[in-house]
Automatic annotation (TrEMBL):
It catalyses: alpha,alpha-trehalose 6-phosphate + H2O = alpha,alpha-trehalose + phosphate. Gene3D superfamilies: HAD superfamily/HAD-like, Trehalose-6-phosphate phosphatase related protein, domain 2. Keywords: Hydrolase, Magnesium, Metal-binding. This is Trehalose 6-phosphate phosphatase.
Length: 260
């Protein structure tokens, strides 16, 4: 499926912008922010956060950033902290964390499982003898394969797949990452909880990764899913690259402002 023709995408954006109540939700990496070698260097493209904030100021409009990043890191990288970030719901760790819920925590069993999982993965990476990057989240360990050669990427995948054999561990593979989590969560379940809580008439969701397919799958006929980049998708529309996202958000902001 190639990129959606401009006129067709314009009609789709105009349709959802006219909804009485609207949620605009987007992934971070690969959508708001281009991929970079060091994930901590990722930053939103110019104007994207400002457009989200402006959308959130419109009557009957809510905005959210839904990411695999842990909540603290997501808030830091987007600059949505303190009073500035209050208007934007941030959902981290693939739905395991939310800025709308301060009650996140692991059970004792989950804490023990995460500790054992972390030890196993760190030992396997050390044994591999390659600079495979690990990322530690409140409920997960992430094995990064981005920047590795073919052999290193294969080793990263094998390390993650072996560790995923533990009872209670779930493996989520994305672009250049293998996330091992001890909390059952996904972006689709998180998006559905948010839309149910808000009671919105329509939802827009932008995503680029395999993990975003869970979100696309829960969208209904009145919603709009926009896949960013290549790959099979349940989304009904597509833009070619991350660099196309600012124009989509800017246009949605303009249309929403004109709807009332």
């Amino acid at each position: 499926m190639s990129a959606t023709p401009a006129a067709e995408l314009e009609r789709a954006l105009a349709r959802v912008a006219a909804a009485e109540t609207l949620l605009v939700a987007t992934d971070f990496d690969g959508v708001l922010a281009p991929f970079v070698l060091d994930p901590l260097d990722a930053r939103p493209q110019a104007g994207t956060v400002e457009d989200l904030l402006a959308l959130g100021e419109r009557p009957g409009t809510w905005v959210a950033v839904v990411s695999g990043r842990d909540l603290e890191t997501l808030s830091t990288l987007t600059g949505l902290q303190g009073e500035r970030g209050a208007a934007v719901t941030r959902i981290g760790s693939h739905g395991a964390q939310s800025s709308r819920d301060d009650g996140f925590g692991l059970t004792d069993d989950q804490q023990q499982l995460l500790a054992a999982l972390t030890d196993e993965v760190e030992a396997a990476v050390a044994e591999a003898g390659r600079p495979i990057r690990l990322e530690h989240k409140p409920s997960a360990v992430v094995v990064h394969s981005r920047g590795q050669d073919e052999v290193g990427a294969q080793q990263a995948q094998e390390i993650a797949e072996r560790a995923a054999a533990r009872d209670g561990v779930r493996l989520m593979a994305g672009k250049g990452i293998f996330e091992l989590t001890v909390v059952p969560a996904d972006k689709g379940s998180a998006l559905r909880r948010l839309t149910d809580e808000l009671g919105v008439a329509a939802t827009v969701y932008l995503g680029d990764d395999v993990t975003d397919e869970h979100a696309f799958a829960v969208l209904g006929p009145d919603d709009l899913g926009i896949k960013v980049g290549d790959g099979e998708t349940a989304a009904g529309h597509r833009v070619a690259t991350t660099e196309d996202v600012p124009a989509v958000l800017r246009r949605l902001r303009e249309l929403r402002a004109g709807s009332g």
